[in-house]
Structures are given as C-alpha cells and as structure tokens.
Amino acid sequence: MKKISIIVIMVCFLSGCQDAFYMEGRVKTIAVTEITNHSAVLYGKFEIASTGKEAEPQIQSTGFRLKDLNRTFREVCDNCQEEEFSAVVTNLLPNTNYQVEAFVTVRYNYGYNENEKKSLVKTFYGNTIEFTTGDGAIMLDFHVLKSDGVVVQKFDRSSGATWQQARDLCQSLNFGGYSWRLPTIGELESLYNSKETIGEFTEGRYWSDTYSGSGSNYRYVDFGTGISEGINGSNSYRCRCVSTSTPDVSDFLVLQSDGVMVQKFDRSSGATWSAADALCKSLNLGGYNDWRLPTIGELQSLYNSKETIGEYTNGRYWSDTSSGSSNSIYVDFENGSSAVAPNGESYRCRCVRNLP
C-alpha cells in the first residue's frame, strides 16, 4: 500500500501576480477492519501542507469512496488540522471484493490582498485498499518482520506526540488481534535499518519505549540520520507501534550436534536481558513451551553455525549466563567475541530448547 501525494502547481497571472505557488495534499487509506458479510469500518488520515506564499488551505470534508459501486461516504470537518477519520459502511454484499479510497476536499484561498482573493476547491484521493466481505475477515495493515521478531504498522500512529501520549496511543491500538506498544530502542534502530522495506517512514524523530537513564528522558531515533539519543519526554515526535510477532509452527531448526532446537528468526531485535529472558520463556512454538535463552556455550556454537541456521545479523545477542547480580554475557555475531554487559542494555535474542 503506497501513499499518494498530489502536487497541484498553479501560476497566477491574475492582477499581475507572476509568482508560482504550490499546494500539496496527502491523504492515506489506512485500514479496513471489523469486516462482516454486510459491513466494515474504514479508516483514513490526512495531512495538508501548503508552501505557497498566499495559499490558505481549509478542510471542507473527509470521507471514503467505494470505487466498484461508486458510493461515497462523506464526513464534514470544520477547521480541521491533521486528523484521522473513520466511517462505518453497511449494506455490502456478502463474499464480495471491494476497493476503497479515502479522500479529503480542500479549499485554497489565494491572493496577495483581500480584493484579489481567489478560491480553488480540490479533492485529494489516497491509496486503494481491497477487501472481501465475509464473517471473521480482516484487512491487515502491518508488516511481519520475522527477522526482528516484531509486527510493525505500515503507517505512523502519530506525527507529533509527547512520549507519554505516544505510549498511550500504541497501547490503546486495537488492530489485527495484537497487543501493540512502542518499540524498544533496539527494535526502533532495526526499523530504521528496514525503513525502505517497511515504507511510509518520514525523516523525522521517532519515540522508543526505552528510558535514557536520567530525569524524564527517553530514547528516540532520527530517521533522517539514524542517530539515537535521549531527550525529555515532553518533546513532540512521531511514533509507530509494534507488537511481538507469533512465529509459524515450523520456524525452528534441530541442531543435533549441539543438542538444541533453535528459532529460525530472532525473538527480538532489541531487548534488555530480563525482557529477552521473559520473551523466550513465554514462547510457544512447534508445540513446545519450554524455550529459553541459550547458555554462553550454546550461543558460541550458534555463532559457529550461523550460516547454516540463517537470518542472524551482526548484532549482539544475549546469553542466559549471568556475571554478577546485574550483568550478563553476550556474543557479538559480527566477530564471535563475547563480553559482559549490564542487563539494562538492549541487545538481540534468539531462543533455544533442549532436544528430548
């Protein structure tokens, strides 16, 4: 699903105006949920930006168009800024494929003084989503990144929110049957590395769920540069939500020589030691529920077999082996070296279990 940006370029020759100004409208069809045989809930979002000297955009209405039936559902919006909107459509035919587009209608007033003001009304349409009616059907609008152990939204949850607002927005998201949250700093850094695959990221700053260790500061990643720093949570940054993915039933390998089963994909791309330990212990995969972090010896063996196993990165992976009360040992899968790190660091993890 791709965002459609429409740029309307007008050159004003009225009243001697020779300057060109630009009007840009962006609207996205985000999701279709709660699909039954005869109804569905549609979601859209818009951002309207003007870079012209005198253009004054005013949102007149938002809504959706069911293209196949040429049906329109309009929602009037007064003095709107950036908004998400939704509509319930009924009287649909069962087991039928539909195409839906979100739209926003904008009035632009332009001119250098009140006597020369002119108006242009333009409707901008978003991307098309297809869905098929049927009880229990659902339109999924997220990516499953098996290599990072997460499910991630295809679109930002907010273009500007404090850390607490971003956290609440993700935790309140009810979509696809998943429990959503802000990504850890390790997960967010992995999302930055996969941003071209996932799509629809801007070059703005995105909140992580990770505390920076001082005051009310939390970590963010700048998606323009990849830089990660801590900053006060009262700042307004973008956010995108993730959920821990559920592996497929066969997503593991049996390593007879090492006496273990191992996941084919990482359980997390960035977790503290305690979070990694809990993620492995809660894993239910292949009919087994006794998964765990590997010991340091097992992890070294996994490094030696990483080409056979596949899907490892060059990052650091937690072992189950502690070093004192607040440190544990990791292995760097770039060079095979191991070292001690505080349990609060955010590293990758992959789970194993003993062979019978």
Entry summary:
The protein has 356 residues and is mostly beta strands. It contains six helices and 26 strands. The protein has three domains: 4-132, Immunoglobulin-like (Sandwich), CATH 2.60.40; 142-244, Mannose-Binding Protein A, Chain A (Roll), CATH 3.10.100.10; 252-354, Mannose-Binding Protein A, subunit A (Mannose-Binding Protein A, Chain A, Roll).
Q: Can you offer a commentary on this structure?
A:
- The chain is mainly beta and 356 residues long.
- The chain has 3 domains: 4-132, Immunoglobulin-like (Sandwich); 142-244, Roll (Mannose-Binding Protein A, Chain A), CATH 3.10.100.10; 252-354, Mannose-Binding Protein A, subunit A (Mannose-Binding Protein A, Chain A, Roll).
- 12% of the residues lie in helices and 46% in strands.
- The chain has 6 helices and 26 strands.
- The strands form 9 sheets. Strands 1-2-3-6 form a 4-stranded antiparallel β-sheet, with no helix packed on it. A 4-stranded antiparallel β-sheet has the order 5-4-7-8, with no helix packed on it. The chain has a 3-stranded antiparallel β-sheet with strand order 9-10-18, with no helix packed on it.
- The longest helix has 9 residues, at 163-171.
- It starts with a strand and ends with a strand.
